[in-house]
Amino acid sequence: MSHLPQKTPRRVMRLPLLLALLSTAVLLFLYGEKWLRAALLYLAGAGWARQLVTSFPPAWYVASRFVSGNTREDAIAAARALNEKGMQVTLDYLGESVSTAEEARAARDEILGVLDTIHESGVSSNFSVKLTQLGLKLDPELCYENLCAIVERARQLGNFVRIDMEDSPTVDQTLALFYRLREAGYDNTGVVIQAYLYRSEADVRRLIDEGASVRLCKGAYMEPPDVAFPAKDDVDANFVRLMQLLLSDEARSHELYAGIATHDDKMINATIDFARKNRITPEKFEFQMLYGIRREAQEALVRQGYRVRIYVPYGTAWYPYFMRRLAERPANLWFFLANLVRR
Ligand code: FDA
Fold first, then answer.
1. Would you give the end-to-end CA distance of the chain in angstroms?
2. Catalytic pick from 50, 92, 164, 167?
3. pTM exceeds 0.85 for this model
């Protein structure tokens, strides 16, 4: 699973990268941003592309804008620096879709260790986890065991675990394991809702009844039009609708706590407007953003008195996470390719 750069002669790498740059420019010109996003999300899951990108050392240089480092210590240092700026953190140990039970248990053990390290270091951070990293696709029971061990350790340490949401085929199972944890008495855990999915409004209504902790985001995976809104305007409109439900009187009366996860000024302003109009004070919810993205906006929200939590990933398996960040903003891709060619 390690995506640390291997040694490959740069001259050998430079030709495919130049070709990639050229073909990207041509396809972008012909088909526009939508194609580019789909292509990058496809590449995020392609083993051959991972091999190509991660075997070229400068790729890590660019990816490190979004990743705090390879080690737990790097992540704790990044968390401490963010805490000093008045921000909360959620740490993430990079990795997903493991292929053996041993890999899933190794991920669990690393997460148990980092929960201890968070506690000992005194940084203010909870933890985010992807269920396919804990074996969801291999065996949901194995995944549940691993997840239980993590949530139990977090509970002993007075900490909280957020279950990230992955692609649409995993949504039912992810929510089912979340509700199973709640039934087992664990309330130190929360889930994520993706505004691009048609089903999300129904999921939000059930989570309101449950009084859960919910992170709302737009959604980062490649999804077909029968499950997700294809047009960005529709995703944005649904995000606003779901944000209003999550911050509604009814949701708050059930003690639902909402994390509004976005870098989009339109979504942030819609949230601030809704909160002001409905006299919802800033400590009743939080904004969440990703490490390395729109740092000035993160600090500006803190200055305005809002709670801000930053998602801080670490680890060597950075490739799919990095590709999703490229897909979100084509300008990142130019920066990436230009750096690869230059270095
Ligand atoms: P949008 O993509 O419209 O971007 C708005 C603006 O933000 C852009 O114009 C740009 O300025 C800036 N921006 C956005 N992405 C950028 C990038 N990669 N690089 C540079 N600038 C960028 N998804 C998921 O499916 N499951 C999950 O569990 C999570 N978890 C999660 C946690 C947190 C804390 C955040 C912030 C996001 C997620 N996501 C996620 C990702 C989310 O679904 C979405 O893909 C990204 O947040 C991008 O969407 P925005 O809301 O930022 O809007």
1. 25
2. 164
3. yes
Choice among 72, 108, 215, 324 that is catalytic:
215
Our answer to whether residue 324 is catalytic in this structure is no
pLDDT tens series, the chain, 343 aa: 445 444 445 555 566 666 666 666 666 666 677 788 888 898 888 888 888 888 877 788 888 999 999 999 999 999 999 999 999 999 999 999 999 999 999 999 999 999 999 999 999 999 999 999 999 999 999 999 999 999 999 999 999 999 999 999 999 999 999 999 999 999 999 999 999 999 999 999 999 999 999 999 999 999 999 999 999 999 999 999 999 999 999 999 999 999 999 999 999 999 999 999 999 999 999 999 999 999 999 999 999 999 999 999 999 999 999 999 988 887 777 777 776 666 5
- Crossing angle (nearest 10°) for helices 33-44 and 319-328: 170
Q: Is 153 a catalytic residue?
A: no
How far does residue 236's CA lie from ligand 1's centre (Å)?
12
Residues 202, 204, 206, 208, CA torsion sign: negative
Which helix (H) or strand (E) segment holds residue 256: the answer is: none
Nearest-angstrom CA–CA distance, 108 and 20:
37
Mutate to test the pocket of ligand 1, among 62, 162, 217 (most ligand atoms within 8 A of CB): 217
Q: Are 134 and 143 in contact (CB under 8 A)?
A: yes
Q: In the structure, which protein residues have their CB atom closer than 6 angstroms to any atom of ligand 1? A: 164-165, 192, 194, 217-221, 261-264, 267, 288-290, 293-294, 311, 325, 328-329, 332
Contact (CB, 8 A) for 222 and 168: no
Q: Is 309 left (phi over 0), alpha (psi -120 to 50) or beta?
A: beta
* Geometric angle at alpha carbon 194, from 191 and 197, rounded to 5°: 130
DSSP 71: S
CA distance 20 to 14: 10
Q: Which two tokens stand for residue 29?
A: 């010109």
